[in-house]
Amino acid sequence: MASYARELTPAVKVQNLHRSFNEAGGVLNGLDLDIAPGEFVALLGRSGSGKSTLLRSLAGLDRGVAGTGRIEVPEKVSVVFQDSRLLPWKRVLDNVTLGLRADDAAQRGEKALEEVGLAGRERAWPHELSGGEQQRAALARSLVRDPQLLLADEPFGALDALTRIRMHTLLRTLCEVHQPAVLLVTHDVDEAIVLADRVIVLDGGVVRHDAQIELDGRRSVADPAFARLRARLLSELGVEDDHDAAPGRRTGSHLGERAAS
Ligand SMILES: Nc1ncnc2c1ncn2[C@@H]1O[C@H](COP(=O)(O)OP(=O)(O)OP(=O)(O)O)[C@@H](O)[C@H]1O
């Protein structure tokens, strides 16, 4: 996944972005950000630091919010949220293909559902799917459009730890196949390290920290280099790393690893 070239025209270019909701002060204060085609960027930041505001700006979902600046994104952008946002009155396949204007929409939807491990569930209703399956369907709905940019706002935030790990593997695999640029908002430092090519930290309405993840191959929380990176990112976030705490009780972390890519 990290095989992008910096000199390529960026998939995302943000220059001097300002956003504010009231006169009390800006949420984004002159933010600059480039994301290369195919690059997977995780976005960390304290609660209220403006992560969702940035993502919504890139998605064009911030109409009515005061602001200035320049945003360039590709034509095909898909968004995934923490909740699947499947329409309860439509079957899974119809949710996946909703708004897709293509003669082969149904076949593409079926293929996307197969890719996310939901083959055979095309005619199910959303309420018949588990939370993890609903997020799989949401991923299928975004990927069926073959996006050049995938924006994901804590897509696994509501899932249990084991389902999350499975979703990490699935997302990596899908990204390797489809090669979208990705901006993933997450609170989970381990999730960021496991998944991303690059991690950025938002603070004060700008990108405060921006680093490539140099870990190769299998990324495991047991790897000392992983632990060092986690400690550095937690410190950027103003949090102490309680690395010695019991698994699952660490601040901003969970057990996770990814297979070599
Ligand atoms: N629609 C809105 N109206 C008024 N203020 C808002 C609105 N949306 C966000 N804000 C404010 O903007 C700031 C940034 O919010 P945002 O949701 O972007 O932060 P975040 O980093 O995604 O937070 P979290 O990690 O808690 O989800 C917060 O102070 C929030 O209260």
How are the strands of the largest sheet arranged?
5-6-7-3-8-9
Q: Which CATH architecture is right?
A: 3-Layer(aba) Sandwich
Gyration radius (Cα, Å) is 18 Å
Instruction: Report mean pLDDT, rounded to a whole number.
Output: 87
- Number of strand segments: 11
Task: Determine the number of helices (DSSP H or I, runs of at least 4 residues).
Answer: 7
The major beta sheet can be summarized as:
6 strands, mixed
Helix content: 25-40%
Q: How far apart are the first and last residues' alpha carbons, in Å?
A: 7 Å
Domain ABC transporter: 12-229
Organism: Nocardioides alpinus
Protein name: ABC transporter ATP-binding protein
GO molecular function, one term: ATP hydrolysis activity
Set out the fold topology.
Elements lengths: L11 E11 L2 E11 L4 E6 L5 H9 L6 E7 L4 E4 L11 H6 L7 H11 L15 H13 L5 E5 L7 H18 L2 E5 L3 H7 L2 E6 L2 E7 L6 E2 L3 H13 L20 E2 L3
Parallel strand pairs: 3-7, 3-8, 5-6, 6-7
Antiparallel strand pairs: 1-2, 1-4, 8-9, 10-11
Helix pairs in contact: 3-4, 4-5
Bound molecules: adenosine-5'-triphosphate.
Adenosine-5'-triphosphate (ATP) binds next to helix 1.
